[in-house]
Amino acid sequence: MIENQNTIVVIPARMASTRLPGKPLADIHGLPMILHVWKRAVEANVGQVLVAAAEIEIAEAVRQHGGDAIVTDPAHPSGSDRIAEALQLRDPEGRFSFVVNLQGDLPTIDPLSVQRCLAGLVNEQADISTIAARIEDQADVDNPNIVKAIAPLSAEREVAFARDFLRQVGPDHPPPYWHHIGVYAYRRPVLERFVSLPVSEREAGRRLEQMRALDNGMRIVVVRVDAVPLGVDTPAELESARKMLRKTA
Question: N or C: which end of the chain has fewer CB within 10 A?
Fold first, then answer.
């Protein structure tokens, strides 16, 4: 059973960013961006919240504002690897059975989306749960930077198993299209197995980590949410986040 005491939200964060160096500590109304993400996770109220930092300065900033953080190896190739190390350091006895991977650059995410992502694991056949929102704009359909979750979701169907994840869709995949949001909930043994596996061919070709899971027989359930949170990767997106959070800061 999924309960607060056996669930943890882990937020991986590192200073290295090609387009926005040091973005976890970028100021948004007097708080570093990572603290805004931490606050959204706390507001979701699904379990403990931990920042898995690649650098000590991120961890110190989180702790100075009352959050919980742990320092991990800066050389990890992915957020999933960073989360797995953070869990091993913090919870070697395995008290946490469910783990939410919440990206550290989503300061505007709706806490309800975090809740819905975790709720996807109520389905006992699901190994991993993630979220997606309907794409309404053709420009977004054509944008290869927007990953599409291929799953039989609809206005009537809120949860479905993923069939694929694509950057570009063709005639074999009719609309509606679903904008994949990179938030994941794992069963603890699934996460541990996932990070032990080598990069799969489709993962490398598409630059999509979730393909490793599908390529190794893991079942990913996709839960429909109402909106795509702003991912902050550039100075312009940082300014947009400041405007969006002005009323809530």
Answer: N
Residue 225 and residue 133 in contact, taking contact as beta carbons nearer than 8 Å: yes
Pick from 31, 33, 41, 30: which is nearest to 13 by CA?
33
- Distance (Å) of CA 82 to CA 40, 224, 229: 20, 27, 22
Give the Cα separation of 53 and 24 in Å (integer).
9
Q: How far is CA 223 from CA 5, 122, 151, 159, in A?
A: 23, 11, 10, 5
DSSP category for residue 100: E
Residue 167, both tokens: 């950057």
Q: Annotate 44-96 with DSSP letters as a single string.
A: HTSSEEEEEESSHHHHHHHHHTT--EEE--TT-SSHHHHHHHHHHHH-TT---
Residue 179's DSSP bridge partners are 133, 148
| From the candidate CATH numbers 1.10.3300.10, 3.40.50.300, 1.10.520.20, 3.90.550.10, the one assigned to the domain spanning 1-109+233-249 | 3.90.550.10
Question: What's the first-to-final CA gap in the chain, in angstroms?
Answer: 34
- pTM of the predicted model as reported, rounded to 2 decimal places: 0.95
- Give the pLDDT of the chain (249 residues) as one tens digit per residue: 899 999 999 999 999 888 899 999 999 999 999 999 999 999 999 999 999 999 999 999 999 999 999 999 999 999 999 999 999 999 999 999 999 999 999 999 999 999 999 999 999 999 999 999 999 999 999 999 999 999 999 989 999 999 999 999 988 899 999 999 999 999 999 999 999 999 999 999 999 999 999 999 999 999 999 999 999 999 999 999 999 998 655
